[in-house]
Amino acid sequence: MRKAFDANVPKFRPRLKTAVAPAGEAGTAAETAAPAAEVTAAPLPGPLPAARGEGDLGEVAHPSSTRKGEGDLSPEDRTPENPPSPPAGERAGRGGSTTREPAPPAQPALAFSEPPDVESRRERLLAVKRKVAAAVRPAPPMPALPETPARAGESALLLVKDFEAQLTRAREVETALRADLDDARAELARGASEGRRAVERLAAVEQQLEEKRSVLAEMLDELSALEEERDGAVARAQALSALDEERQALLDAVTARAEQAERARAEGEAELGRLGAELDERAADLARLRAALAQVTRERDDLSRELGEARRERDELAEARRALEQVHEALATARARLG
């Protein structure tokens, strides 16, 4: 690359400025390095929407490349190449056309639900458009050209590096655009597949409708059969009503018999009441007899107690008698000993 630059430097020398003050060499070098720093520090534009196509790459790279190439040309050569800047209204209109939202796609015949990431992708595309609009704005005027061939060579090297960086960014933008195009194609394929699925669902619904119609016809046939069964049921109901009349007659007979049984039960209850009264009288007599028996039992207990006391007194008297006899015997024995 250095050899190619050395070979091309004599071609640019006639166009370089020769009348530059020696005192402005330092400022000129700083001004020459400033555009390169601005290009290097400029943020990379984001991926552009797929709808813009490859033609936008030239729009992105053209203004900066044109401005960078002006450094190697004389004022006479730059004059026809730089058109007058458009007025502010025209630039605003151009920026508005750049940031204009894409026209909504034609809606398919059947309503499909949009994927959840469509809104986020749309916002991202709008942000990319704003970045592109900011990138294509006119740059400030270029600084003065370098005064020596060496400085011009350095400036050319910086421009080459800038061009390479711009080419790299353009390739990245192209890759992003191709990725967006692939995404759009994939979304289109998904939409087509969803349309086919909707048509298939419509065919399935029509088939289900035909099946339901056949089922409805079968239900009508069954309804006719049910009406015939209803007529038979009415005839059976009439027969059952006749049977109910016979059953009612039997019920009347059974009711008469039940009344007779009720009267017999009432008579039995009256007899049972009489027997209960007699039983109560017998119970009262039994209670009186039990009271008399209790009185006799108490008297017997009293007599038994008195008899026990008498026996106890008799035993005490017998013991006293034996003691007295012993005393007499002892006195007799003592008298005999003394006598």
TrEMBL record:
GO terms for biological process: signal transduction. PROSITE patterns: HAMP. Residues 67-80 have a biased composition (Basic and acidic residues). Residues 18-43 have a biased composition (Low complexity). InterPro entries: HAMP_dom. Residues 286-336 form the HAMP domain. The keyword Ribonucleoprotein does not apply. Gene3D superfamilies: 6.10.250.920. This is HAMP domain-containing protein. It comes from Anaeromyxobacter diazotrophicus.
